[in-house]
Amino acid sequence: MEKIEFFDANVFIGRPHNGMFGAVNNSEGLFEEMDKQGISRAIVWHIFQYEGSPVEGNRILAEEISKSDRFYGCWTILPPQTQEIITEDFFKQMKENKIVCLNVFPDWHRFVMDAVTFGDFFQQISERNIPLFLTMGRSCISWDSLYRLMRDFPRLTCVLCDIGIWGVDRYTWPLLEKFENFYLESSQLSLEEGGVEATVKRFGSERIIFGTGFPVRYPKASILQLVHADISQQDKINIASKNLERILKKEKL
Amino acid sequence: MNSLWGKFLENGRVKECPVYDMHAHMGSFNRIYLPFGDFNPEITKSRLERAGIKMLIFCSHWTLFSPDIGNRANIEVVRQLPDKLRAYCGLNPNYPEIIEKDVEDFEKYRDVFVGFKLLSDYHQKPVSHENYSPAWKYADKKGLIVLLHTWGGSQFDGPEQVRIVAEKYPGAKILMGHSCHGAWDETIQLMKDFPNVYAELCAVVDDRGGLEQIMDACGSKQIVFGTDWPWFNHHYYIGAVIDSGISDQDAHNIFHRNAEKLLEGLI
Question: Do A221 and B33 touch (CB under 8 A)?
Answer without folding.
Answer: no
